[in-house]
Amino acid sequence: MYKSISSEKLIKISNYKNEKDRICSAVGEFIALKVCSSKKNINLSELKISKGTYGKPFILGVKDYNYNISHSEKYVVCAISEIKLGVDIQKVVEISKDCYKLFLSDRELEQEYNIDKIIKLWAYKESYTKYLGMGLHLDFSKIHFKDDGYVHNRIANQHEKCFFFEHWVDSKYILVLTSKYKDDIKIKNITNLLNFKEL
């Protein structure tokens, strides 16, 4: 599997704090490459990954193929689409008020939230900023979601209509996907990296 992954990515993977994070990152990229190879009928060894200005990865020279990766402990998510997208998966864990005050907007801080809602808001915000290609480079406290599906980005001073897909993987893990348009979402569970016949 590691032979299919870019040397730059391997260096980044090696800098992760623990082996589990290194494996999850490698698995996510391998899935993206493997599916691209299958869908586009391109030899796996010919696929090269590059990055945008803020580090969002993409496969060089392949049109209409966008992917985004996220992982949290035992889960790895690789979202794939013809249009740009962002995805995030988070585990519900207790965090202090001082911590979540850093990423909630002023309007959000006026409301009362339980821990599930707070973690869900983080997942929405990270998914959205990854959709933009900026990830953690954007100040989450400047982002506010509206009930009509619009996102208010105070940094860019703009409102943008997005499609959000929310899925609780189990009682402790939430997945959020962001894209420009509503599309059919198919969730595939992969437990064997050598078996991609159903993808």
From TrEMBL:
Residues 4-79 form the 4'-phosphopantetheinyl transferase N-terminal domain. GO terms for cellular component: cytosol. Its EC number is 2.7.8.-. Residues 85-168 form the 4'-phosphopantetheinyl transferase domain. Gene3D superfamilies: 4'-phosphopantetheinyl transferase domain. Keywords: Transferase. Transmembrane segments: none annotated. It is an enzyme of class 2 (transferase). One of its GO terms (biological process) is lysine biosynthetic process via aminoadipic acid. One of its GO terms (molecular function) is magnesium ion binding. SUPFAM superfamilies: 4'-phosphopantetheinyl transferase. Belongs to the P-Pant transferase superfamily. Gsp/Sfp/HetI/AcpT family. PANTHER family: L-AMINOADIPATE-SEMIALDEHYDE DEHYDROGENASE-PHOSPHOPANTETHEINYL TRANSFERASE, PHOSPHOPANTETHEINE TRANSFERASE. This is 4'-phosphopantetheinyl transferase.
